[in-house]
Write a sequence for this structure.
C-alpha cells in the first residue's frame, strides 16, 4: 500500500494566488522529505530537501521565497507556491525515506490560470 | 548539465522478449542507483536499485547491471509483459539510498501483446 500521501491530487488556481500542497508519511516518521517537480515530458527535478525542525535546503535556481517549505512534524511537509503564475503549472511530487528506500507520493497537478 | 542521461526516449518490445533500458551518468561521486516505474499523473514506483560496490542486482524479472568504468547502468526486464508498459526513470544518488535523487529523462517502454 501507499506509504506517502499528497493532498490535493490536483488544484486549479488563479494567477497571483498561493497554493499549499501537503505531503504525509503514513505510519512512519520522516525527518527528511524531498520535493520534486516534473514538467510535461521532462524528468523529475529536485526542488528542495525538507528537514524536520529546520530550514529547507533548496536546489540551485529554485526560489525559496516563492516555494515555501514547512516540515513542522515528522509526518508532514508542506510546499506553498506563493503568488503562483502560469509557468508554475507542473506536477509536484514529494518523497520520504522509510528504512532504506525512498518512496514517492502520488503527486499533485497544479494548473495556474 | 544533465548528470543522468537516458538517451532513448522510447522503446518498443514484443511480449515475452527482453527489454533493455539504458542509463548513463557523468558524476563519479554517485554511489547508489535506482530504477523507478511511472505512470502518467502518478508518483514513481521503486523497482530495483544497486550500490556502486556491486555490478549486478537481480529481483525476479528485473536485473540491473552497473558498469562503473563506463558510468553506465542498464535495466533488463525478462520476460516483458504488457503491464510493464510505462515510463522508466533511472536515478542516482551521492549519499546512499536515502539521499536526494538525480533523475534521467525517462524512457517510455511499450510492450506489445
Amino acid at each position: 500500500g501507499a506509504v506517502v500521501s499528497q493532498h490535493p491530487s490536483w488544484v486549479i488556481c488563479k494567477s497571483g494566488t498561493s497554493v499549499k500542497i501537503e505531503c504525509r508519511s503514513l505510519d512512519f516518521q520522516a525527518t527528511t522529505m524531498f520535493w520534486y517537480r516534473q514538467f510535461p515530458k521532462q524528468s523529475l527535478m529536485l526542488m528542495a530537501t525538507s528537514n524536520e525542525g529546520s530550514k529547507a535546503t533548496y536546489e540551485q535556481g529554485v526560489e525559496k521565497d516563492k516555494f515555501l517549505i514547512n516540515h513542522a512534524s515528522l509526518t508532514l511537509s508542506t510546499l506553498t507556491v506563493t503568488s503562483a503564475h502560469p509557468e508554475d503549472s507542473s506536477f509536484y511530487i514529494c518523497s520520504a525515506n522509510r528504512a532504506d528506500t525512498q518512496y514517492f507520493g502520488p503527486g499533485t497537478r497544479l494548473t495556474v490560470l | 548539465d544533465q548528470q543522468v542521461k537516458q538517451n532513448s526516449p522510447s522503446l518498443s518490445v514484443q511480449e515475452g522478449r527482453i527489454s533493455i533500458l539504458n542509463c548513463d551518468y557523468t558524476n563519479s561521486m554517485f554511489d547508489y542507483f535506482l530504477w523507478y516505474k511511472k505512470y502518467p499523473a502518478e508518483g514513481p514506483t521503486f523497482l530495483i536499485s544497486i550500490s556502486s560496490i556491486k555490478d549486478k542486482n537481480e529481483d525476479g524479472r528485473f536485473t540491473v547491471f552497473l558498469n562503473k568504468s563506463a558510468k553506465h547502468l542498464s535495466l533488463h526486464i525478462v520476460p516483458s509483459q504488457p503491464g510493464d508498459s510505462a515510463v522508466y526513470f533511472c536515478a542516482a544518488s551521492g549519499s546512499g539510498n536515502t539521499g536526494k535523487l538525480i533523475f534521467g529523462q525517462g524512457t517510455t517502454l511499450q510492450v506489445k501483446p
In short: Chain B touches chain A at residues 34, 36, 41-46, 49, 89, 96-98, 100-106 (CB under 8 Å).
